[in-house]
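Comment thread on ticket #2218

A.B. wrote:
> Attaching the input chain for the structure job we discussed in standup.
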Amino acid sequence: MNINTRENLASRLGFLLLSAGCAIGLGNVWRFPFITGKYGGAVFLIAYLVFLAIMGLPVLIMEFAVGRASGLNMDGALRKLEPQGTRWHNFGWLTIVGCYCLMMFYIPVAGWMVNYMYKGLAGTMMAPAGTENVADYVGGLFGATLGDPINMVFWTVLTSAIGFGVCAFGVQKGVERVTKFMMSGLLLIMVGLAVYALTLKGSVEGLKFYLMPSLARAKEAGIGALLNDAMNQAFFTLSIGIGSMCIFGSYLKKDRSLTSESAIIVGLDTFVALTAGLIIFPACFAFGVNPGAGPGLIFVTLPNVFNSMSPVAGRVFGALFFVFMAAAALTTVIAVVENCIAYFMDTYGWARGKSTLFNFVLLTILTMPCILGFNVWEGFSIPKIGGVLDCEDFIVSNTLLPLGSLLFCLFCTSRYGWGWKNFIAEADAGQGAKFPKFLRFYLTWILPVLLIVIFIVGYWQKFAAK
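C.D. wrote:
> Ran it. Output below, let me know if you need it in another format.
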């Protein structure tokens, strides 16, 4: 592929919403609100924001800088920017392997969201009138969804087809245009749902639990555990380390500084995470339901809340909630599969159509283990890790993301890599806030250590902790 004809994003808003769409994912909804409440509300939030500023934001800026300076995906960028005689490009495989591993379980889970969006719109998520045990109906509905491999394959392939179909139209006409529409709708729906949830009787108690600072709750959960989870959430929330942000940097013009743009993206990601809690906790407390976390929160707890509302309110609220969840999941799918498509276009000179079709077929095959792990292969489990989805998630979250982020950090700060001066020149190009130069010592010597700590702690918690 001739990089001189490479597409750029048409607008600044497109870049911001596309990058935010990649960062905003399921963890913003089914993990962030829960751990915020667990660790004392504002007490956890302060720690999270500090770690987000000193860890997540700098690596995000580095990944964008590498992409924009090279105009290529992570693999091509390392080859183009590395000093002569060095072998940074040997790590370029991280981007395609990381994106494949992520999509192997993320597309099926996104398929759950699309499925439940359909259930919400069709009304089948609501228990029929006269149902004796609504909780059993809701739990059985999710169990039946996971237990039917044919149904799972259908929704997974449909979700994948939507993602690749959007990317097939190109960066501007497909990815940017659709993501701008979906992200704008997502934000409007979220705000509307939060406003409604806060008007429910009893919602104030949920709001207090979620955001009021509680040192007692923080101490009960453990200050060490609080700091560890705040650091992990701040790092993992932005999906940095596998080049999925690098590719959007490669589509970006040099008229705005990367520090300004990255800060806005981090702000959008945090806004969505906080607003998700403003939907979940007031609604759950209003109807006396324990929120919990993870898939159970989204597919069991919240549908129980919707069934506790009046029939009309429950159906509308539930449908809109899963429209929001499906949009959040699909924007991430579109963003990451675009990186997969661009990898083969940049590396092997493939046309967009060929790369799109190849990756669609390949990822359709690669998602099968995750699907079968909930039914045909439900007995499969690796000690200390779990089933198929847990294993795939562990590879991405505990291995590839921290190691990939460490690679970007070293590449941008070491004189044996791209180097500090080149990084600063690229980050500061354009109008907007400039990158703080006084952070050089921290980014060169301290941040890499923190990233190694995240990697080690992740493995220790899985295999050594009792």
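A.B. wrote:
> Thanks. Noting for the ticket: The first helix runs from residue 12 to 23.
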